[in-house]
Amino acid sequence: MAAAAREVEKKIESLRDKIRQHEYLYYVLDQPEISDLEFDKLMQQLKDLEAQHPELITPDSPTQRVGGKPREGFVKVSHSSPMLSLDNTYNEDELRAWESRVHELSGRAAIDYVCELKLDGMSLALIYEGGKLARGITRGDGSVGEDVTLNVRTVRSVPLSIPPEKLKQAGIPADFEVRGELLMPLAGFKKMNAERESEGLSLFANPRNATAGTVRQLDSRVTAGRRLDYFSYMLLKNGRTYFDRHSKTLDALEAAGFKVNQNRKLVHSMDEAWAFIREWEAKRDSLPYEIDGIVVKVDRTSLQEELGFTGKAPRWAIAYKYAARAGITKLEDIRVQVGRTGKLTPVAMLAPVLIGGTTVRNASLHNMDEIERLGVKIGDWVQVERGGDVIPKVAKVVDDKEHPRGHKTFHMPETCPVCGTKVVRTEGEVDYRCVNANCPAKLRETILHFASRGVMNIDGMGDALVSQLTEKGLVKNVADIYSLPKKDLLGLERFADKSAQNIIDEIENSKKLPLERVIYGLGIRFVGERTAQFLAEHFGSMEALEKASVEELQDVNEVGPRIAESIAEFFSVPANRKLVGRLREAGLTLTGEKKERGTMLAGKTFVLTGTLAHFTRDEAKKMIEDAGGKVTGSVSKKTDYVVAGADAGSKLDKAKALGIEVIGEEELRKLAG
Ligand code: IVH
């Protein structure tokens, strides 16, 4: 190898080490030593070097966390030993009974236990080979799970590789398995649901469901965007516990750089364990993630083995489950709220009730199906449950002597409770919606979306300004932004001449943004950034899009009946057509370049490997996609062509082994027309 190439390789390795160390400090220890900006700079340097030398990219490079490789499906994988669940107890008596049994079966008087939080996520196995993360496998049915490695790589608290010295220090062999809990912290959960709500997507009921939904995403870019966290609690070698005490396992995992929950305790009696349980019952609301109980585990591995298993759970561990924080109260009324996409959400108005230290006055009833499932009527007594920070929900109707049934049946209103427009329920869908783009309830959120970065990019038009503009009636729809006089801005709180002029300039600049941004900005349900782009390319103008029929819309890449109907419905409302007319008059860019995606490569899947001589990977990818083909990251039986450049590595070998056609860039150019 030439000296220069060795230099680059050294530089890349040193950058990777630095980044790994900072990831560890930030994501595992929560103790960052450098700013986000400095971190991003290091990452960018590494990305640039790797882009220049793609042959040096390794799967454990920190740049490979955000895979972005659309997957075809998940492969089933057998576990090295069954992934068990836990038996539950719900009160102190049951817990003491479990303890007696452990004493009885083991014939011992004194037993050490480790108490841990019972994290409310999903269990996940990580297989390390030679100190490198080889596979991440879901629990599945306990004996066979699914390979979700690409998604697991995006989880920052999962180490992609561990230096041999570190493993040695921790006393861990190079090939091993870690098991632990994957979860979504509450802050991220709330943020994600808020975003989903604004996009008109269904909400996840709790962080656990959100975690499961996220790790099973086919596109790992989606997983990467949703920041999951992973806590380790088991270490296996050939399917068996490796250390002689569970407490040692946890310490060793920690020493090797895994994230192990700090809120754990080695105790010498059940009294101490009980104190731990009570302590965390009171403190659970202070945690940034949800727990649903405490796990008590026998510390000594030899004793664990003696005790063995019953069915699906070990005899050496028990879960103490906290009661769902619930209360019974009267449902006084059901009101309807309207969100940005016009979704009508029925909300239960409750007689105030204290649940887990918080007074609850209302709870979501989600949709009409949920109301029917619960069979709830106004005037009923209901059981209301509250998770960590999650919106309280009506769990069931209480029906006994003290709690007589209510009589008033709730009906979804036929018109929007805010603007009076007729409400629509699309066939096959759960939700009712108001389709009037000018509905004031939707206004604030719509304007915020329109002005945001990545849409019309009107810097400075955030929460504070939009609230004032809409509350004062200065902006009644997105078109009003473009006729906003400077004097109106000057009349607002904290606006001086300069700041007002800045906003005016920003608004003016936004007119230059391309057609796809405006389409995206309209906030049509199901029309995200990518769909907006396809629509703009296909129709080439807003006018053509407005006129398109449901059938014509479905000619567009990735647009099926559901999206097509939503678009046609939007443009069928006169107020929406008028709005677009005003945007046109204001001078926004409502035409673009019409670009037919070719069909030459439709249905064909490509993998790129090695360094191409005449274009970058992005250019090659674009060429393939423009011709209707698809580019994936790894070679499988489903790959049609592998495009190989100089220094192609293992992907080329794999292609040959699978008998997949290997082509050069000249041939690619011909194929793509
Ligand atoms: S130990 C054989 N420890 O609870 C040991 N599990 O209800 C089984 N869980 O499937 C796992 N926190 O997903 C263990 N500190 C903890 C846990 C924990 C949460 C989950 C895990 C398991 C489920 C069983």
How would you sum up this structure in a few lines?
This protein is 38% helix and 20% strand. By secondary structure, the chain is of the alpha+beta class.
Largest sheet at a glance?
A: 5 strands, mixed
**Helix content percent band:** 25-40%
Write down the overall mean pLDDT. Answer: 90
Query: Ligands in the structure?
Result: 2-(butylsulfanyl)adenosine
Question: Can you give a write-up of this model?
Answer:
- With 673 residues, this protein is α+β, with helices and mostly antiparallel strands.
- It folds into 5 domains: 2-64, Helix Hairpins (Orthogonal Bundle); 88-321, DNA ligase/mRNA capping enzyme (D-amino Acid Aminotransferase, Chain A, domain 1), CATH 3.30.470; 326-424, OB fold (Dihydrolipoamide Acetyltransferase, E2P); 440-586, Orthogonal Bundle (DNA polymerase, domain 1), CATH 1.10.150.20; 605-672, Rossmann fold (3-Layer(aba) Sandwich).
- Helix content is 38%, strand content 20%.
- Strands 2-14-11-3-10 form a 5-stranded mixed β-sheet.
- α24 links the parallel β24 (641-644) and β25 (661-663).
- The model has no long low-confidence stretch (mean pLDDT 90).
- The structure holds 2-(butylsulfanyl)adenosine.
- The site of 2-(butylsulfanyl)adenosine (IVH) has 14 residues, from β3, β4 and β14.
Q: Can you lay out the helices and strands and say which pair or pack?
A:
Elements: H1 3-28, H2 36-52, E1 76-78, E2 88-89, H3 92-106, E3 113-119, E4 122-129, E5 132-138, E6 144-146, H4 149-152, H5 164-170, E7 176-183, H6 186-199, H7 207-215, H8 220-225, E8 229-237, E9 240-241, H9 246-255, E10 265-267, H10 270-283, E11 291-298, H11 301-307, E12 309-310, E13 313-314, E14 317-321, E15 325-338, E16 344-355, E17 358-364, H12 368-374, E18 381-386, E19 393-398, E20 423-424, E21 433-434, H13 440-451, H14 463-471, H15 486-490, H16 497-510, H17 515-521, H18 529-539, H19 542-547, H20 550-553, H21 561-572, H22 574-586, E22 605-609, H23 617-626, E23 630-632, E24 641-644, H24 650-658, E25 661-663, H25 665-671
Parallel strand pairs: 2-14, 22-23, 22-24, 24-25
Antiparallel strand pairs: 1-6, 3-10, 3-11, 4-5, 4-7, 7-8, 8-9, 11-14, 12-13, 15-16, 15-18, 16-17, 18-19, 20-21
Helix pairs in contact: 1-2, 5-9, 13-14, 17-18
The protein binds 2-(butylsulfanyl)adenosine (IVH).
Residues 84-86, 116, 118-119, 122-123, 181, 233, 295, 314, 317, 319 line the site of 2-(butylsulfanyl)adenosine.
